[in-house]
Amino acid sequence: MKILCDRQNLQDAFSVVGGIPPQKTPKPIVQNVLLRAADDRIVFFATDFELSARVTLDSVKVLRPGEVLLPAKETSALLRELSEPTLALESEEHRCKIESGSGSFVLVGDDPNEFPAEPTFDGTRTFKVPSAVFLEMVRRTSFAAAREETRYAINGLLLDYDAGNLRLVGTDGRRLALTSAEIEGGDEPARAVVPIRTLHSLLKAVGDDGDQDLEITLGNSQIAFSLGDVEMISQLLENRFPAYEQVIPKVADSTIEVDRSLLEKNLRRVAVLSSGDVRMVRFEFKSSSLELSAESSGVGRADLSMDASVDGNGGKISFNPDYLLDALKVSDLETIRIDMTDDATPARFSLGENYTYVLMPISGS
Fewest C-beta in 10 Å: which of 31, 158, 177, 211? Predict the structure, then answer.
């Protein structure tokens, strides 16, 4: 194999697949990325058996077709360091020489014939959504998904589609983030739990390219994402996601409106003096104000007051400040709404158009 290509285009294409290979694996061959060259285009393919990614790069001069395995970690690092506009790649046996200006670098891979084949996919349902819309939905919900490996059923986001409405839901049992959008996809309902790692890889691959439609195809145990020259196929998690509709409060005794940016700033200040063992900030809603307080034994105490519009009796409730800050920083509203009943009932935060956040209070405070 021998090719000439633009360095920046090569680096951008490789970055899509370069993060897929695992750092540790009983099958070291998947720590490589497969490069195939033919017909003035190259294709990169990587997999860890659960997530696979494929990206095609056109406008490449293929002087001799062929394929080679490139070690993912070292190739990514090398491409970031090179600065010449054009690179020449030539492979012989299991070695690939990259020539850049006056430099020459040889990467040693494995036998391409031993690399796993691209997965077959039997998708049955296809949706189309503007990529910028879907990626914003992921940003609004992925932080709320469980991280503990023992909570496998909620280590992902629920994709819930019904009659033109797509919802993404993330929860770890202490908080729940839900956002929705109207999309194309027919009337047949569909539900799937997508691993967080898959969605984070998609965020990196797509970047800020919001002008194209992202095509999402669901199969019985897999999901595929396609955008331009990028394709990803991932295994789904078991669909044992909680009945999230039952978690969202339908009524509340008090409704409060506050300035989002001011609340975020003040909450960060007060949280400095919340206890390290039990992170907690107390919210006290009065007739026209919100009082924030936190205390850490042997360290100090913080008290802060800010304006708020309170409809109802108000009251006291305590939250983990980190859980609330996670949501506030992805909200796009100037004024947010909080619906609460008491210090033992989850509070509902309206943080944007079609964006709801439910947070469990810290009881016994």
Answer: 211
